[in-house]
Specification:
- The protein is of the alpha+beta class.
- It contains 13 helices and 18 strands.
- It has three domains: 149 residues, Nucleotidyltransferase, domain 5 (2-Layer Sandwich), CATH 3.30.420; 103 residues, ATPase, nucleotide binding domain (Nucleotidyltransferase, domain 5), CATH 3.30.420; 71 residues, Alpha-Beta Complex (Actin, Chain A, domain 4).
- A five-stranded mixed sheet has the order 3-2-1-9-10, with helices on both faces.
- The protein starts with a helix and ends in a 10-residue tail after the last helix.
- The relative contact order is 0.14.
- About 4% of the residues have low confidence.
């Protein structure tokens, strides 16, 4: 073969390689599972796992254009000037501001898809709270479609959480899941791929933060920000007393003098501050147990209750619940990602989980 002929052959190979095939384009498409939470949004991509885990918050300019999303917007929260505002588009587990929720989802999906600039989202499964209305469900579906997904399915969060912790939701056996989220506490008894009984209260970790802020305002004349309250809860918050109580310092504004002030905070005060929302969660768990059919109650007695969601990380929460209802309580591994991982498993094995999709 002459050099000319070799050149010609190579050019032909190059040409045929550069011709895009249907397979090439379809490989750019992505199937995603989404846990759109009041506090955090997680995205799971098929064959990849959790690829995004960001706070559900955006920062907007005066033209209502997004200038930051997730962690970056969270850093700006409570530190903005008049030309920037931060917005959390979800309240109590549901979309409170459609336009901004859509923009946030679109930005988050775009950041996941950035390596596939020509690709698009083919299928999306979104986890939704059990307690939401048909109108609220439609809003989630519309937002997911408007943010680029071609085919949208919904799944109840507690079922996704049960799948995420590795429970076999299809068997005729009662499993009790308690998802302690930022905006909601969701309790469900699951058997045969369905929810036998569920309870959802719009009280969660964010209410605890509000109670911490109001406690320090009332008791110490100190105004602290939401982020300081969250930090206090993480570091020294607890559901039951410690053998040795904890302390930390926090900063805020003295409401009498108007000047900045540092205060030594102890875990007993924090426990008192969050006692009301914690009691509301406990009452909801007790009510769910009272409404559980007896055969399934027996299963729960054997297997115990599984806690998921960020609230499961509150110190001693398992102790408080197990002592109040006299049942074993397990904390899911990595409770902040359980729903996203469960929705991901459903996405990857859709034929097996057809009956749980809404
Ligand atoms: N270590 C911790 N101690 C106490 N609370 C925590 C801890 N870590 C996270 N949280 C709380 O968990 C909540 C977030 O949990 P999660 O991400 O499960 O909520 P979400 O899914 O966004 O909300 P929802 O399901 O209600 O819409 C926040 O309120 C946060 O303060
Ligand atoms: Mg959640």
């Amino acid at each position: 073969m002459s050099t000319k002929e070799i050149d010609k052959a190579q050019k032909t190979i190059k040409k045929s390689n550069s011709k895009p095939s249907r397979g090439f384009f379809s490989s750019l498409n992505m199937d995603l599972a989404l846990d759109l939470g009041t506090a955090n949004t997680l995205i799971y991509a098929r064959n990849k796992g959790v690829v995004l885990n960001e706070p559900s918050i955006v920062a907007l300019n005066t033209k209502n254009e997004i200038i930051a999303v997730g962690h970056e917007a969270q850093l700006m929260h409570e530190k903005t000037h008049k030309n920037i505002r931060t917005v959390r588009p979800l309240k109590g587990g549901v979309i409170a501001d459609f336009d901004i929720a859509e923009k946030m989802m679109r930005e988050m999906i775009r950041s996941v898809m950035k390596t596939r600039w020509m690709g698009s989202v083919k299928k999306m499964i979104v986890a939704v709270p059990n307690g939401i209305t048909a109108v609220e469900r439609m809003a989630v579906r519309d937002s997911a479609e408007n943010s680029g997904a071609k085919e949208v399915f919904l799944v109840e969060e507690t079922i996704a959480a049960a799948v995420g912790v590795g429970l076999d939701v299809k068997e005729p056996m009662g499993n009790m899941i308690v998802d302690l989220g930022g905006g909601t506490t969701e309790i469900a008894i699951i058997s045969l791929s369905g929810i036998v009984y569920s309870q959802s209260i719009r009280i969660g970790g964010e209410r605890m933060n509000e109670e911490i802020v109001s406690f320090f305002r009332r008791k110490h004349n100190l105004l602290i920000g939401e982020r300081s309250a969250e930090k206090i809860k993480h570091e020294i918050g607890s559901a039951t007393p410690f053998d040795e109580e904890l302390e930390m310092t926090t900063k805020g504004r003295n409401l009498v003098s108007g000047t900045p002030k540092t205060l030594l905070v102890n875990s007993k005060d924090v426990r008192e501050a969050i006692s009301e929302p914690l009691n509301a969660c406990l009452e909801a768990i007790k009510k769910s147990l009272e409404n559980t059919p007896p055969e399934l109650s027996a299963d729960v007695l054997d297997r115990g209750i599984t806690l998921t969601g960020g609230g499961a990380l509150l110190k001693n929460i398992d102790k408080l619940i197990s002592e109040s209802i006299d049942l074993p309580v397990h904390i899911a591994e990595d409770p902040l990602t359980t729903v996203a991982r469960g929705t991901g498993i459903i996405l990857e094995n859709q034929e097996d989980y057809q009956s749980v999709l809404i």
